[in-house]
C-alpha cells in the first residue's frame, strides 16, 4: 500500500527543477521507487537521495529523503508540513475499475454547482468504473484526497449540492479498502 510521508521542504533548484525533502511518518520505514511512482498523484522522477543532514545530537538523519517532481509545474499542488501518500507504480485498480487516460474534469465542472463539495477544487481524473459512470478524482486542495463521483453527463449544472452524488476518501489506502476491494468483491 501507500507510504505516508511528511513534506519537510520544497526546493526549487535553478536549471534542475523542483525537489522535495520528505520524511516517512514511521521512523526508519524504507522508501523504494518503482518504474512509476506518485506522491499524491503527482508523478516523481526515478530519483531518491538521502541528503546529508545532522540531527541535534550530531547523528546523521537517515529518515530524510530528497525526491524530484517529474513535472515541475505541479509543485503548486504540494505544501510544506503536510502528509502525503507515496504510491508505488500506481497500485493496480481492481476490476471493474481501470485507470483513466481521458481527463473528465470538464464534465465534472459542467455538473457541479456552487456549494457542492468539489466546487472550486483542484481535481484530476484517476480512474473510471467500466460498467457505469463512476469516476475517481484526486483532490489536491482539501482534507480528503480522493472523491468518487457518479457523473450524469448533463450539459448544465445540476440543482442542489447533493448532485452529482459524491463520496470522499481520506487517502489511497481508504480508496483501495473502501472502494476498489468492495466493488471487486461485488463484481465477482
Automatic annotation (TrEMBL):
This is Uncharacterized protein.
Amino acid at each position: 500500500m501507500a507510504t505516508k510521508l511528511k513534506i519537510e521542504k520544497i526546493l526549487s533548484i535553478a536549471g534542475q527543477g523542483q525537489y522535495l525533502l520528505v520524511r516517512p511518518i514511521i521512523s526508519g520505514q524504507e522508501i523504494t521507487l518503482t518504474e512509476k511512482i506518485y506522491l499524491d498523484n503527482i508523478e516523481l522522477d526515478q530519483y531518491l537521495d538521502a541528503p546529508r543532514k545532522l540531527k541535534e545530537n550530531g547523528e546523521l538523519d537517515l529518515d530524510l529523503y530528497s525526491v524530484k517532481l517529474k513535472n515541475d509545474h505541479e509543485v503548486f499542488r504540494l505544501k510544506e508540513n503536510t502528509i502525503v501518500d507515496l504510491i508505488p507504480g500506481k497500485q493496480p485498480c481492481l476490476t471493474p475499475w481501470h485507470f483513466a487516460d481521458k481527463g473528465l474534469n470538464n464534465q465534472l465542472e459542467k455538473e457541479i454547482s456552487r456549494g457542492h463539495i468539489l466546487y472550486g477544487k483542484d481535481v484530476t481524473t484517476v480512474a473510471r468504473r467500466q460498467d457505469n459512470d463512476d469516476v475517481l478524482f484526486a483532490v489536491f486542495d482539501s482534507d480528503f484526497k480522493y472523491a468518487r463521483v457518479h457523473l450524469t453527463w448533463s450539459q448544465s449544472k445540476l440543482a442542489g449540492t447533493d448532485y452529482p452524488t459524491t463520496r470522499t476518501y481520506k487517502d489511497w489506502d481508504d480508496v483501495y479498502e473502501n472502494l476498489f476491494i468492495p466493488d471487486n468483491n461485488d463484481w465477482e
